[in-house]
């Protein structure tokens, strides 16, 4: 969890409709492509758990094909990936599997690929929430490859001296090793060494590694972070400016030990001891995290600026140009809400926030570009709160970007100690977490203390605890769109209560743990399977028509 970044919580910037089922699935296939010897010509995707039940409605099928074509998560061509695959000579098939006994995560896919050289590669991937993914099996051997770092993947005979040879090659090319792991079924057999590095791995290094007689194959997987960060800029994170300037990797690693907040109590204690808002504290952690990874330029402010721009576009474009969703369940609702804002029941802040939340989900469901915050299914809550606060109270973009950092801190703690995946914890883990993030961010915007921010986040989680995930027809459309609006309304109430100084008997950390336990207790049918709740009603079943 030390590697969890602001970018992992507020992000990725992606094409909808689901961070775990679209962006995460794409990342799995993209990593698979990087492990091939040549261009893929045929791919078979066997889908398990939630993937098997919702892959068409969530765009998982299009995303897997797009990843196999090498696309990025924010590439607007993802929706057309089937046609592009045909043009590229890539055939594909999907096999939904009902036997989940062999999987460790509900968002799992097995991929078998034949490439242009005739080589066959098989692998298993798991989409673990928020767009993150891990390769857990490669050609029958259990491994762990996340794509978070630059990685060199070496297929070898498990013999003495091979690991030393690989490490020596990296040293000769001045590439710093972040982690090293050897994976094998039994001693002396075929094995995989995966080394994650802080530096980009040149082709010459891979060629040098491959010269050893006991090495069968070498592949390089570049970090996904490179495509998300944007162009490096000289400006440092404004919230952390002057903190840890010029620190070395070793110094950053040491400092990160004290800033790797394991829970809300630790972060709150740090904020109060240093007299800092949550946004500043998490940006200090981010600076240390980046420096510990050998990244000299802290471009967090640049990243948050880009994120805010994408959020604003996703929340406002449907007001002028509504787009029908991929599944046909939603489209045009935000424009209708905007038309009655001044004549409806809600006050200006709530009315505007409701409109924005619904609009972002329209963008998401039409496979437009959104920011997962913390997931795509809950992507409307945080931007709705921030943009509505800006419209009503006049906050500038710099204040909103700081509030985004605050929200990232809350999302980080929930991710670390529970889950933000609907397939693991229900909608309380997605919209509930987003509502907690929005409540805390609004509390800081309005001058609340860190203690009040945590109270607001706890209030928001409490208000939505037990919320099930039941997408009708497996689509991130209904009831997801309206639940995003409910999430931002819940966040406004939660922040208002906290700002009034009303205490909670149960603190933030205990509330997160309670949410985790409730999520574990939810049956599979109520965790993003499209088999329970509203998804199992007669009207929903008639629309779906698959049963």
Write a brief structural summary.
This protein is of the alpha+beta class.
Poorly predicted segments: 227-240
Biggest β-sheet description? 6 strands, mixed
Strand order across the largest sheet: 3-2-4-5-6-7
Tertiary shape: globular
Mean pLDDT over the residues = 92
Structure notes:
This protein is an alpha+beta fold and 547 residues long. The chain folds into four domains: 1-144, 60s Ribosomal Protein L30, Chain: A (2-Layer Sandwich); 149-222, ACT domain (Alpha-Beta Plaits, 2-Layer Sandwich); 230-292, no CATH class; 300-544, no CATH class. It has helices at 6-9, 19-34, 49-54, 60-68, 81-88, 162-172, 203-210, 225-229, 249-259, 264-274, 278-292, 300-320, 333-339, 348-365, 381-393, 397-417, 422-425, 427-445, 450-464, 480-499, 508-521, 538-544; strands at residues 13-15, 40-48, 91-96, 107-115, 120-129, 132-138, 141-145, 150-157, 177-184, 190-197, 215-221, 369-371. It has a six-stranded mixed sheet. A four-stranded antiparallel sheet has the order 9-10-8-11, covered by helices on one side. The two termini are 40 Å apart. One of its GO terms (molecular function) is metal ion binding. InterPro entries: ACT-like_dom_sf, ACT_dom, ASB_dom_sf, Fe-S_L-Ser, Fe-S_L-Ser_bsu, Ser_deHydtase-like_asu, Ser_deHydtase_asu, Ser_deHydtase_bsu. Belongs to the iron-sulfur dependent L-serine dehydratase family. Keywords: 4Fe-4S, Gluconeogenesis, Iron, Iron-sulfur, Lyase, Metal-binding.
């Amino acid at each position: 969890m030390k590697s969890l970044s602001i970018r992992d919580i507020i992000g990725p910037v992606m094409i909808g409709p689901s961070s775990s089922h679209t962006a995460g699935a794409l990342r799995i296939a993209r990593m698979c492509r990087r492990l091939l010897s040549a261009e893929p010509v045929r791919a078979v995707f066997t889908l398990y758990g939630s993937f098997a039940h919702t892959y068409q409605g969530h765009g998982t099928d299009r995303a897997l094909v797009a990843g196999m074509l090498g696309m990025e998560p924010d590439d607007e061509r993802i929706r057309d990936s089937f046609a592009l695959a045909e043009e590229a000579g890539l055939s594909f098939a999907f096999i939904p599997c009902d036997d989940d006994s062999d999987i460790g995560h509900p968002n799992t896919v097995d991929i078998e690929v034949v490439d242009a050289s005739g080589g066959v590669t098989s692998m298993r991937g798991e989409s673990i929430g928020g767009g993150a993914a891990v390769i857990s099996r490669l050609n029958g051997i259990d491994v762990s490859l996340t794509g978070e770092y630059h990685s060199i993947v070496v297929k070898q005979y498990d013999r003495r001296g091979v690991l030393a040879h690989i490490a020596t090659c990296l040293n000769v090319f001045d590439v710093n090793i972040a982690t090293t792991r050897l994976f094998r079924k039994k001693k002396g057999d075929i094995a995989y060494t995966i080394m994650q590095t802080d530096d980009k791995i040149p082709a010459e290094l891979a060629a040098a590694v491959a010269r050893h007689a006991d090495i069968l194959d070498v592949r390089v997987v570049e970090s996904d972070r490179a495509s998300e960060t944007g162009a490096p800029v000289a400006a440092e994170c404004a919230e952390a400016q002057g903190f840890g300037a010029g620190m070395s990797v070793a110094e950053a690693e040491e400092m990160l030990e004290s800033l790797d907040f394991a829970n809300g109590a630790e972060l709150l204690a740090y904020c109060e001891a240093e007299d800092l808002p949550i946004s500043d504290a998490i940006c200090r952690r981010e600076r240390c995290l980046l420096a510990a990874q050998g990244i000299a330029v802290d471009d967090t402010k640049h990243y948050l600026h880009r994120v805010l721009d994408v959020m604003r576009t996703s929340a406002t474009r449907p007001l002028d140009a509504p787009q029908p969703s991929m599944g046909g369940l939603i489209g045009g609702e935000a424009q209708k809400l905007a038309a009655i804002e001044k004549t409806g029941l809600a006050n200006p802040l709530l009315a505007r926030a409701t409109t924005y939340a619904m609009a972002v989900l329209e963008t998401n469901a039409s496979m437009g570009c959104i920011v997962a915050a913390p997931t795509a299914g809950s992507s409307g809550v945080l931007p709705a709160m921030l943009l509505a606060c800006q419209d009503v109270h006049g906050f500038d973009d710099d204040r909103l970007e700081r509030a985004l950092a605050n929200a990232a801190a809350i999302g980080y703690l929930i991710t670390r100690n529970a889950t933000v995946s609907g397939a693991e914890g229900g909608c309380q883990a997605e919209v509930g977490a987003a509502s907690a993030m929005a409540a805390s961010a609004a509390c800081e915007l309005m001058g609340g203390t860190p203690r009040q921010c945590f109270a607001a986040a706890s209030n928001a989680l409490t208000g939505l605890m037990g919320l099930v995930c039941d997408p009708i027809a497996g689509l991130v459309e209904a009831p997801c769109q309206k639940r995003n609006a409910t999430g931002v309304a819940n966040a406004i109430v939660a922040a208002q209560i906290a700002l009034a100084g009303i205490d909670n008997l149960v603190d933030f950390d205990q509330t997160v743990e309670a949410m985790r336990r409730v999520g574990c207790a939810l049956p599979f049918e109520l965790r993003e399977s499209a088999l329970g709740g509203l998804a199992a009603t007669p009207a929903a079943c008639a629309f779906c028509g698959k049963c």
